[in-house]
Specification:
This protein is 41% helix and 18% strand. By secondary structure, it is an alpha/beta fold. The protein has 2 domains: 5-160, Rossmann fold; 167-282, no CATH class. Strands 2-3-1-4-5 form a 5-stranded parallel β-sheet. Helix 2 (40-48) links the parallel strand 2 and strand 3 (56-60). Helix 1 crosses helix 7 and helix 4 packs across helix 5. The chain is elongated, with a radius of gyration of 25 Å. 32% of the residues are buried. GTP binds at residues 62-65. Residues 168-285 form the RapZ C-terminal domain. Keywords: ATP-binding, GTP-binding, Nucleotide-binding.
């Protein structure tokens, strides 16, 4: 199935599979945690019949599945029999680091009933040896922070076009109605000359040419906008490097109809010209 990327995440308990799953979610993958192996071929068939609606999949299958996990090799063979391509990402870490992580989180190792944490880790390593030998990519998380693991997964599994592309939502809003709760960055443009006090502009919005001309005829508007653009162009690559998939930039004036709308429109043009994905939202434009 050439149009579907199907990643099976497995590996040692405590090696970072939960963090890996969150990273795949941020990349837009359809994610399933701890799916019984016997259901993997069925799910693959459903994805193939989704007409492209499900084209990137990441699922975790590990020792938590108990006796069900032993059928993972059979499930992989079933995928191969129907011609379904898949990739295996195997996560591991040094024993002393795994022991420390379990102690710090006070979690119980899935095989701890066999003895100590160390004995559980050794038994799990033996049981996973065959799966590890089939892995397309092995990541040792011993010295990796969660952010570094996310960056590694992004570099391996994000399409090139999305590694450098972040979804930027520009929100024009009115402070009188409250600041958007999901905003990452908030800018206040209430210091700019207000079209509301020009009678023939009052019923219009920042999407009207007359309002745009009024907002942009002032020197202070151009000075502020240049500083705003410089800051945004500096910050966005930093957010991309951090692995942030979405950025919400809110620009507010008093009512959210004139100045903020005009500012969002111009900033949207600049960012779209840089090949970023941009969504514009005029939250309060229709309010009295």
């Amino acid at each position: 199935m050439e149009n579907i990327r199907f990643v099976i995440i497995t590996g040692l308990s405590g090696a970072g599979k939960s963090q890996a799953m969150r990273s795949f979610e941020d990349l837009g993958y359809f994610c399933i945690d701890n799916l019984p192996p016997m259901l993997i071929p069925k799910f693959a068939e459903l994805a193939a019949q989704s007409e492209g609606k499900i084209n990137r999949i990441a699922l975790v299958s590990d020792i938590r599945g108990g006796e069900f996990f032993t059928s993972l090799l059979e499930a992989l063979q079933a995928l191969e029999d129907i011609g379904f391509d898949y990739e295996i990402l195997f996560l591991e870490s040094d024993q002393d680091v795994l022991i420390r992580r379990f102690k710090e989180t006070r979690r119980r190792h899935p095989l701890a009933s066999l003895g100590s944490i160390l004995e559980g880790i050794k038994e799990e390593t033996n049981r996973l040896a065959m799966i590890r030998s089939k892995a397309d990519k092995i990541i040792d998380t011993t010295a990796l922070t969660p952010q570094q693991l996310k960056e590694e997964i992004t570099s391996l599994y994000a399409p090139d076009s999305e590694q450098e592309n972040i979804l930027i939502t520009l929100v024009a809003f009115g402070f009188k109605y409250g600041v958007p709760l999901d905003a990452d960055l908030v800018f206040d443009v209430r210091f700019l000359p207000n079209p509301h006090y020009v009678e023939h502009l009052r019923p219009l919005t920042g999407n009207n040419e007359e309002v745009k001309e009024y907002v942009w005829k002032w020197t202070i508007t151009h000075k502020f906008f240049q500083k705003l653009v410089d800051m945004i162009q500096f910050l966005v690559p930093c957010y991309i490097k951090e692995g942030k998939p979405q950025l919400v930039i809110a620009i507010g004036c008093t009512g959210g109809k004139h100045r903020s709308v005009s500012m969002v429109n111009e900033l949207g043009k600049i960012l779209s010209g840089k090949n970023y994905r941009v969504i514009k939202e005029y939250r309060d434009i229709d309010k009295a």
